[in-house]
Amino acid sequence: MKKLTVFISLFIFSLSVSSQIPQEDYSANFNGFQRTKGKYPDSAIKYMQKLAATRPQAAEMLLHDSFAQSFLSFMEEKITKDTGFLVWAKQMNMTIDSVRATMRKEKKIAYIILNELSKDPDTLIKSNVYPIAKWVEAEENTQDPKKLLTIGQNYLGYLSGSDDLYAQRKARYGLLISKLMYAHEELRPSADKILQYIYNKLQHNQVPGLTDLPKKRGLGIGICLPTLIL
């Protein structure tokens, strides 16, 4: 009886330890990606691969809510005009030029990571990186209406293959691409097609618990959509 008690105690302890390991791995991989994505692309990619294999939802969140921000075209200008950031930079003995240089360097590394993850054998990684990559491609071609139109049409075709536009934040990047297209008057009809498709799909496939969509007031770029996708 004593041996059985000891065995049960050891078994329960082993379960407790094994349940802690995933949490430790999760923290190491999540924080590891955040720590290395601006300097060491190979390491960042490995951390993302491990995170996607163990905590897919965390990997998706990290890609869309953190990594994607590396490609925001206005971020460099915005952050260097932020009073709070300027105070912090001064305390760290950093100049505006050095901050901009750092951000540009990190953005170049982000492109390397994006390119490699776009070819990753993990379906979850590849499917989540695809809409980010298409939006980044659109950002790179804002001054080329013909190329931008092609990107927008291709993205609309991509959206048409799914009813769930919440997955992989498909709607978010569709809105961002259509906004870029809207800067060119000749592309606005095509941009409106993307907006119309997103509006219709989200209206008819809402996530339970979300507030009903506001009534449509024309399809210009100011169209109202649930904030969950943004």
What would you say this structure looks like, in words?
By secondary structure, the chain is mainly alpha-helical. The chain folds into 2 domains: 27-140, no CATH class; 144-230, no CATH class. Helices cover 69% and strands 0% of the residues. The protein is built from 10 helices and no strands. It has helices at 2-36, 41-54, 56-65, 75-79, 83-91, 96-118, 123-140, 145-159, 170-182, 188-204. Helix 6 (96-118) packs across helix 7 and helix 7 (123-140) runs antiparallel to helix 8. The longest helix is centred in the first third of the chain and has 35 residues, at 2-36. The radius of gyration is 22 Å and the shape is globular.
Percent range for helical residues? Answer: 55-70%
Provide a count of the helices. Answer: 10
From the spread of the alpha carbons, the general shape counts as: globular
Counted beta strands: 0
Mean pLDDT: 82
Q: Note the main sheet.
A: none
Uncertain residue ranges:
2-21, 210-230
Radius of gyration: 22 Å
Which secondary-structure class do the elements indicate? mainly alpha
Please report which band the strand proportion falls in: under 5%, 5-15%, 15-25%, 25-35%, 35-45% or over 45%: under 5%
Give the count of structural domains: 2
Distance between the first and last residues' Cα:
59 Å
* Helix and strand pattern: HHHHHHHHHH
